[in-house]
Amino acid sequence: MSERITLRVTGREVQGTNVVVLTLCAANGETLPTFAPGAHIDLHLAGGLVRQYSLCGNPDDASHWQLGILNAQNSRGGSQAAHLLQPGDEVQASLPRNLFTLTLEASHTLLVGGGIGITPMLAMAHALHQAGRSFELHYCARSRARMAFLPALDAAPWAAKVAYHVSEEGETCRLQPDALLVGAPANSHLYVCGPEGFMDWVIDKAESAGLAPSHIHREYFNREPETGGEAFEVVVPALGVTVQVTQDQNIVEALAQAGVRVKVSCQQGICGTCIANVLEGTPEHRDSYLTQEERDANDQIALCCSRSRSPRLAIEIFELD
Ligand code: FES
Predict the structure, then answer these.
(1) Is 267 in the pocket of ligand 1 (CB under 6 A)?
(2) Of the candidates 131, 111, 21, 115, the residue with the CA atom closest to the CA atom of residue 73
(3) CA 82, CA 71: separation in Å to the nearest integer?
(4) Which one-letter DSSP state was computed for residue 262?
(5) Is the CB of 265 under 6 A from ligand 1?
(6) How far is the CA of 68 from the centre of ligand 1 (A)?
(7) Is 35 in the pocket of ligand 1 (CB under 6 A)?
(8) Per mean pLDDT, which range of 71-75, 190-194, 299-303 is the poorest?
(9) 272: pLDDT confidence band, cut at 50, 70 and 90?
(10) C-alpha 248 – ligand 1 centre gap (Å)
(11) Superfamily of domain 4-94
(12) Reported pTM
């Protein structure tokens, strides 16, 4: 199991519609581990739920972490549980993990956050500013009332680099990605986070503007992993179990039919709760938890969504429910 730390909530503020900004310190009073801009932590919430939230404070400040959490309408309980946290409460968290790496080598960086997708961009803006790099931050939302972090953005030493795009304030206020991307200096990098449709729109414009795929960086949340595929066999030697995973099942479901209940949380390939070791065979990775390096090693698999390229996969399960 991944290493956990205990955090204490030291600040809670509702900002914008349905967004709570939590300030968290180490419960033992020590400084917190450092994190890279773009990193997230897993919060272990009431009801056994594990959810991922981007660290949105200044990466150079190890005295506290900050999270911005939207109480999403389609929440499956995680953001609701996080919104119940109050100052003084303790909560378990993973160490920071980064799947949205910022390069400091770009000639210019475009940070684009839609709605709660602003959170990783804040940490990135701090880092780019501290490194003296050229950047601009575009914060998009339907209305100003929905926007969190406005006081912090106004007070940031890089406030002049922030542009606000508010749909309700008319066409001229909306993000114009064509103009933004076509006019960007050569060797610019784009980072985008937000609702899936918004991200796909911005990325599509970036590709049309000729930005190299390696210069387009994205972080999805709540993305349904791809489903379906060829049937295959899964063996769990330690339990003496062999199951067939049919075309329309995932491994967790197939194992449950055989009485093996794997511990899961997000069931979207995001949190890593269901990660197992691969002893034999080649996984087909469909999660967004493992890093590219971990995927290439092919010795771990997210059982809730990934499948097998080989007809047989032998695995070692860490946590049963
Ligand atoms: S349950 Fe979250 S990655 Fe599988």
Answers:
(1) yes
(2) 115
(3) 8
(4) B
(5) yes
(6) 22
(7) no
(8) 71-75
(9) confident
(10) 18
(11) Translation factors (2.40.30.10)
(12) 0.81
CA of 276 to the centre of ligand 1 (A): 10
The model's pLDDT over 118-133, given as tens digits with 9 standing for 90+, comes to 999 999 999 999 999 9
Q: Residue 1: what residue type?
A: M
The matching CATH number, chosen from 1.10.730.10, 3.40.50.80, 3.40.30.10, 3.40.1160.10, for 108-219 is: 3.40.50.80
Atom of ligand 1 nearest to the CA of 269: 3
The span from the CA of 307 to the CA of 287, in Å, is 10
Identify the CA nearest to 290 among candidates 309, 279, 303, 281: 303
- The ligand 1 atom at the shortest distance from the C-alpha of residue 272 is 3
Between CA 188 and CA 105 the distance in angstroms is 9
CA 272 to ligand 1 center in whole angstroms: 5
Burial class from Cβ neighbours inside 10 Å (0-12, 13-18, 19+) for residue 1 reads exposed
Residues 70-102 pLDDT 10s: 987 767 788 899 999 999 999 999 999 888 899
The alpha helices in 209-263, defined as continuous H runs, are 251-257
232-317 maps to CATH 3.40.50.2000: no
What DSSP string describes 228-252? ----EEEEEGGGTEEEEE-TT--HH
Cα distance between residue 251 and residue 262, in whole Å: 9
